[in-house]
């Protein structure tokens, strides 16, 4: 069979398909559905310093070819994560990425410090791009200076590989990518959701309790592919593509423009085993095209 192995910096993945933060819980929720060891990696639900309740409901709204979410980074906090969730994840034979979120640079640094030296964690994904929280989030992801400072603070306090997750809600995503690379990030993931809103025309009120949310799903994929294409040309560190992937063909778009791996998000809600289907589809594509390695596809765009 063709080789699906890829490198993200010093990290070797068995295949380039990961599941995205916020769409796969803490992993154990899916253990009865398929063998989690088949995945290239799991990016766990975003973790903050202390437990977070999230935004008021309603927090989910369907849209044409997509979904608006305003969960607000609800999570159990880092202490409970380490005690209750990490033991299960450590037993898996796949890479574990912990998505971290802070309301201040100091919180990002403290989170990184708490996770320093903890076994079973392959990398930190630094979320500076959530559009539906009032503190942190977009404040750090939209300003190059803040993005750089957060990245530096995390790197000073961790022994893990650091991936910075970028927002599409900026004027020029290449600028943000370049500054986090200069700050020392080992890799970049993009895109997070696009800020959006839905209105109930009968009540004339916002559908979401938080008024606005993050748009995800196939509707945003062309935007995501274009931004990944831009960032791949702007930086030298590995890029992980995210946004509206529901099939192997979708994943291939990101790989062809230069992403070294992809994350599958919203599609997990529709087909909980979609990541497995995508992995199988990538193998079939390579076999059908007489290719021995997925690396023959990465960055192969013809213009």
Compact description:
This protein is α/β, with parallel strands linked by helices and 303 residues long. It has helices at residues 78-90, 105-115, 138-141, 144-156, 173-182, 221-234, 248-256, 267-270, 274-288; strands spanning 6-8, 11-13, 17-19, 41-47, 60-63, 66-69, 95-100, 123-127, 161-165, 187-190, 194-197, 199-200, 205-206, 212-216, 239-242, 261-264.
For the structure shown, list the relevant keywords.
four-stranded antiparallel sheet, alpha/beta, 31% helix, 303 residues
What is the string of helix and strand elements? EEEEEEHEHEHHEHEEEEEHEHEHH
- Spatial sequence of strands, sheet with the most strands: 3-4-7-8-9-10-15-16
- Low-confidence blocks of residues: none
Question: Based on helices, strands and strand pairing, what is the structural class?
Answer: alpha/beta
Write the layout of secondary structure elements.
Layout: E1 6-8, E2 11-13, E3 17-19, E4 41-47, E5 60-63, E6 66-69, H1 78-90, E7 95-100, H2 105-115, E8 123-127, H3 138-141, H4 144-156, E9 161-165, H5 173-182, E10 187-190, E11 194-197, E12 199-200, E13 205-206, E14 212-216, H6 221-234, E15 239-242, H7 248-256, E16 261-264, H8 267-270, H9 274-288
Parallel strand pairs: 3-4, 3-16, 4-7, 7-8, 8-9, 9-10, 10-15, 15-16
Antiparallel strand pairs: 1-2, 5-6, 6-14, 11-14, 12-13
Helix pairs in contact: 2-4, 4-5, 5-6, 7-9
